[in-house]
Amino acid sequence: MEPQISRLSATEKALEVIWQLEEKYGDLMFYQAGGCCEGTQPQCFEKGGFFPRMNDAMIGTINRHEFWIDRDLFEYWKYSHFTLDVVDGFGPGGFSLETPLGKTFKVHYKLFTPEEYKNLEPVKRSE
């Protein structure tokens, strides 16, 4: 059986910021909303600091931290690999834990090939 393909990865720059946040806050979680006030950029919270809605999708983990996506946004992006990155500056909203560091998380997307899509890791849904 072939190993399953991950839906999620992170750049070294993103991992460095996550390590800083872990040191300060402990366990973390990520949530990427579908728009409105917070836009569609991923937000980082202390674990339990945000509650996914019914049927939102958890597409994987980064350093054991769950990465959740709004259910509607996931339907749009379910054919894509997410790479979490970080850039200098402030994103909309400013509620994410990296904001005081003058950073903002962002995602790069890459479409899966049909062969990759057939062998993806399963998605966990909130209840």
Shape: globular
| First-last Cα distance | 30 Å
Mean pLDDT: 91
Helical amount = 10-25%
What's the total helix number? 3
CATH topology category name: Hypothetical Protein Aq_1857, Chain: A
SSE blueprint and pairings:
Layout lengths: L7 E3 L1 H14 L2 E5 L9 E5 L10 E6 L2 E5 L1 H7 L2 E9 L14 E9 L2 H4 L6 E2 L2
Parallel strand pairs: 1-6, 2-5
Antiparallel strand pairs: 2-3, 4-5, 4-8, 6-7
Notable traits:
8 strands; Hypothetical Protein Aq_1857, Chain: A; 3 helices; alpha/beta; five-stranded mixed β-sheet; globular; 127 residues
Short structural description:
This protein has helices at 12-25, 71-77, 114-117; strands at residues 8-10, 28-32, 42-46, 57-62, 65-69, 80-88, 103-111, 124-125. By secondary structure, the protein is an alpha/beta fold.
Give a structural overview.
With 127 residues, this protein is α/β, with parallel strands linked by helices. It has one domain: Hypothetical Protein Aq_1857, Chain: A. Helices cover 20% and strands 35% of the residues. The chain has a 5-stranded mixed sheet. Strands 1-6-7 form a 3-stranded mixed sheet. Strand 4 and strand 5 form a beta hairpin. The model has no long low-confidence stretch (mean pLDDT 91).
